[in-house]
Structure formats: structure tokens, C-alpha cells
Amino acid sequence: MEKKKNYHILVLNGPNLNLLGIREPKKYGYHSLNEIIQILTKEAKKKYCKLSHFQSNAEYKLINYLITYKNYFDYIIFNPASFTHTSIALRDTLLAINIPFIELHITNIYNRESFRKKSFFSDISSGIIIGLGTDGYILSLKFILKKLLN
């Protein structure tokens, strides 16, 4: 009998997401990033999947992390935060490493300032979850688990 693959999912978060629960909680929610990652880790373990997390406020650190660990991950939940609208370098990295990802936004970027309406990632993502608060993380994970395990 063939052994099933143990899938590895990365949750990658951009600038200021380390301030979740503190920064404008009415807009971004009351859960800290650590609490969200704990919930996701438990859900992933139930399906015998591994979950890793990396957050940085520095674009180059996100890029270096993706390049360094590109062979470890099967899928990515990616909240690029403000890099959504500015980072061609991160886009190029995601294209280069060729790992499928869900683009995630806690707030509805189309309900905000006009400069936030353009994403450098939407057209290369497997899907986009926008404006569902921090619940978007668990919804992303559920989609990915269903896709990987079925």
C-alpha cells in the first residue's frame, strides 16, 4: 500500500499583521496572529498536515523565506497586506517557486482607498478571500485541505 503524502502548508503574512488584535481591532479583528496560527495548526493536524508560519514587515525577508524553503511547501495561504499593491518582487518570487497559493485579505480591499483596489497577486493565485475578517484564514485552510486531500 502506498503511503499518503504528509502535506505542508505555509501561512505567509506581510507587514503589520504581527499587530493583529492590537491594530484597529474593529477593522482587523480581536484575535492575535499567534491565536490565528494556533487555530490553523490544530485544524491542519486533524488532517495529518503540517502548518508553518512566517511573518515579516520586510519584503526581502518574505522573498528570502520563500526561496529558501520553496521545496518544503505544497500550498500557501498568503496575506500580503500592503505589499498587495506594491510588490512586483514578491509576485515574481511566487511565479518562480510555482507553489499554489490563496490570496487573503482580512478587509475588503475594494471598499477602501482607491490605491488598494489593485493587487499584484490576484491573477496568479488559486483563489482570493477578501473581507471576511480573520475567518478568511480558516476558510483558506479548509479549501486547501479539501483540494490536497481529495
Model description:
- With 150 residues, the chain is α/β, with parallel strands linked by helices.
- It has one domain (8-149): 3-Layer(aba) Sandwich (Rossmann fold).
- It contains 5 helices and 5 strands, in the order E-H-H-E-H-E-H-E-E-H.
- It has a 5-stranded parallel sheet, with helices on one face.
- Strand 3 (75-79), helix 4 (88-97) and strand 4 (101-105) form a beta-alpha-beta unit.
- Helix 2 packs parallel to helix 5 (135-149) and helix 3 packs parallel to helix 4 (88-97).
Question: Number of domains in the coordinates?
Answer: 1
Which word captures the global form?
A: globular
Order of helices and strands: EHHEHEHEEH
CATH architecture descriptor: 3-Layer(aba) Sandwich
CATH superfamily: Dehydroquinase, class II
Query: Helical content, roughly?
Result: 25-40%
Number of strands: 5
- Terminal-residue CA separation: 18 Å
